[in-house]
Design a protein that fits this description.
By secondary structure, this protein is α/β, with parallel strands linked by helices. The chain is built from 13 helices and 12 strands. The structure holds pyridoxal-5'-phosphate. The site of pyridoxal-5'-phosphate has 13 residues, from helix 3.
Length: about 375
């Protein structure tokens, strides 16, 4: 069955350039730590790819630490960040709409005696910097704020918040989960100003199993994995040379698509317009600030059922973050939506490769689902 894909925030297809780079790297199978030519060749590959990833993120190669995924980067930065600042206190600030990789890490730290303040979003999923200013305390050790929300596409004012936090106390560490913002909204390590930034390869056309944590020069983060001393002693373990090659190639291929952001925004606008025309009962929860994500609802319908029915027809959308596995989304709940809206909430996410034909197929399938499925409102 051919697949019509509107779930690019969950994951993306591996780009042909990344696939080619992976296959090439797999053939040069040396261990980068080995001292003979096969190993040195692999080490040179990792060095070159780190430079490419650093260029995509606007930082130096020395600030890039390869990880297995965005979840690992988030865990590393938050857990080791609070440890680094343990003398400051045990207060953490984050937002109520972070990904589970941040929220569950914070909950784990709460069980270990930390106190966490969860900033509430407005109806569009945005965070007010003044709420952060009011939450800062002398014992605040770390702030963790995402750049782009993965369910509603809101862009959070990270750069402004970093300035505000550092003006209050420059020793408070700032972590940004930029997994959904990477190459989707313009930013660099310098423009954000955060101490730690996490990104993930599989959201930009790289294979799964590779990500990066950027650690600002001068911040003395402690190792996450101890062992053979790879990643400058910070994250031991033989480097996944093929995934790293795929990650760098995906960064390059994405950056080469200079019109990707307006193209993505245009296909999202087209889809929303067509949905609006075809389905009068459909409501837009938020159009999303980022070009690739929006959230809509069919009030009174069960979004899991809609997602399953569309999936059976070969159309992939999401009832929220792919990590929720059927549980109601904490993000949609945090927006204060009425229950029928929460029940029917759907996330649509796009790529520059999404077409109008695909959007038309999605609209027709949703229209049919709305006409045939049971709604609690009728
Ligand atoms: N943070 C955000 C905002 C995400 O959207 C995701 C994945 O959906 C993650 C973190 C986790 O990234 P990974 O799947 O690479 O662990």
């Amino acid at each position: 069955m051919s697949v019509t894909y509107f779930d690019y925030a969950a994951t993306t297809p591996v780009s042909p350039q990344a696939m080619e780079a992976v296959m090439e790297a797999l053939q040069h199978f040396g261990n980068p730590s080995s001292r003979y030519p096969l190993g040195r060749e692999a080490a040179q590959g990792v060095k070159t790819h780190r430079e490419t990833v650093a260029r995509a993120l606007g930082c130096t190669p020395q600030e890039v630490y390869f990880t297995s995924c965005g979840t690992e980067g988030n865990n590393w930065a938050i857990r080791r960040g609070v440890e680094l600042n343990r003398r400051k206190g045990k207060h953490i600030i984050t937002t109520a709409i972070e990904h589970a990789a941040v929220l569950e890490t914070c909950r784990d730290l709460e069980r270990q005696g930390y106190e966490v303040t969860y900033l509430k979003p407005d109806r569009e999923g945005r965070i007010n910097p003044q709420d952060l200013a009011a939450a800062l305390r002398p014992d605040t050790a770390l702030v963790s704020m995402m750049l782009v929300n993965n369910e509603v596409g809101s862009v959070l004012p990270v750069a402004q918040c970093v300035k505000l936090v550092k003006a209050y106390d420059k020793t408070i560490l700032f972590h940004c989960d930029a997994v959904q913002g990477f190459l989707k909204v313009p930013y660099t390590m310098a423009s954000l100003g955060a101490d730690f930034v996490s990104v993930s390869g599989h959201k930009i056309g790289a294979p799964k199993g590779i990500g990066a944590l950027l650690v600002k020069k001068g911040v003395r983060l402690t190792p996450y994995l101890t062992g053979g001393g790879q990643e400058n002693g910070m994250r031991s373990g033989t480097e996944p040379t093929a995934q790293i090659a795929g990650f760098a190639a995906a960064c390059q291929a994405t950056m080469a698509q200079t019109d990707r952001l307006p193209r993505t925004a245009a296909i999202k606008a087209y889809t929303l317009q067509k949905l609006h025309e075809a389905l009068p009962q459909l409501e837009v929860i938020t159009q999303g600030d980022a070009p690739h994500i929006c959230a809509v609802t069919l009030p009174g319908y069960k979004s899991e059922v809609v997602v399953r029915v569309l999936g059976d027809a070969g159309i992939c959308i999401s009832s929220g973050s792919a990590c929720h596995k059927g549980k109601p989304s904490h993000v949609f709940a945090a927006l204060g939506l009425p229950k029928p809206w929460l029940d029917g909430a759907l996330r649509l996410s796009f790529s520059p490769a999404s077409t109008q034909e695909e959007a038309d197929r999605l609209v027709a399938a949703l229209k049919e689902a709305a006409a045939t499925l049971f709604t609690t409102l009728s």
